[in-house]
Amino acid sequence: MRRAIAGALAAGAAAGCMAVAAGPAVAEERVCRGAIGAATVDNLRVPDGASCALTGTTVKGTVKVETGARLVARRIRVVGNVQAEGHASVTVVNSRVGGSVQLVQGRRANVSGNRITADLQSFENAGGQTFRNNRINGNLQCKENAPAPAGGGNVVGGNREDQCARL
Questions:
Q1: Could you tell me which residues come within 8 angstroms of residue 94 by beta carbon, excluding any fewer than 6 positions away?
Q2: Beta carbons of 106 and 125 less than 8 angstroms apart
Q3: Adjacent-strand bridge partners of 155
Q4: CA 33 to CA 81: how far, in whole Å?
Q5: What percent of the residues of the chain are helix, what percent strand, and what percent coil, each to the nearest 5?
Q6: What does the pLDDT look like over 136-165, one tens digit per residue?
Q7: Nearest one of 134, 167, 162, 136 to 150, comparing CA atoms
Q8: In this structure, are residues 90 and 67 in contact, taking their beta carbons and an 8 Å threshold?
Q9: Residue 50, SS3?
Q10: Is the pLDDT of residue 122 over 90?
Q11: pLDDT tens string 93-115
């Protein structure tokens, strides 16, 4: 009798273990208000109106800069994208971005001395944008910015488009 009970318990435990499914892996998001040095994070978000300074930081995912926020990033490494929408200012210098740098409907930006695996895109911004001495494997795309972006010395693997045709 004990054997039958032990066997039934073992079979039930095995079936219960098989019924538990692992959930999807979720990358953690770090919120930046202030400064982060030589640390590694999954995803990074600069929330509305906040300021964030990154120096030597590694981001295994994406950097998001929200409305009215400020980002100053020096010598960072980003596996994914740098995405800013409605930003007050974005500075990315001497860094590596594994995806794209996307600046949309914001104000000022300085993107200089970087290696960007995909595209550098600047759309509908209303502040001075400077793109200088970047190595961009994809496209350099600029549309409907006032004033038009300035800069030069960019090495572009794809196309230089619209307002950035001469940069």
A1: 74, 75, 112, 113, 114
A2: yes
A3: 135
A4: 19
A5: 10, 45, 45
A6: 999 999 999 999 999 999 999 999 999 999
A7: 167
A8: no
A9: coil
A10: yes
A11: 999 999 999 999 999 999 999 99
* CA 105, chain centre distance (Å): 17
Residue found by looking up tokens 């208000």 in the block? 33
* CB of 54 closer than 8 Å to CB of 76: yes
Strands 77-78 and 96-97: parallel
Q: How far apart are CA 45 and CA 75, in angstroms?
A: 18
Residue 119 pLDDT = 98
Q: How far is CA 72 from CA 26, 132, 140, 151, 152, in A?
A: 27, 16, 21, 18, 21
Q: Which two tokens stand for residue 109?
A: 């930006």
CA atoms of 87 and 41, how far apart (whole Å): 21
Residue that the structure tokens 């030597």 belong to: 56
- Cα(7)–Cα(5) distance, integer angstroms: 5
Tokens standing for 8?
């039934």
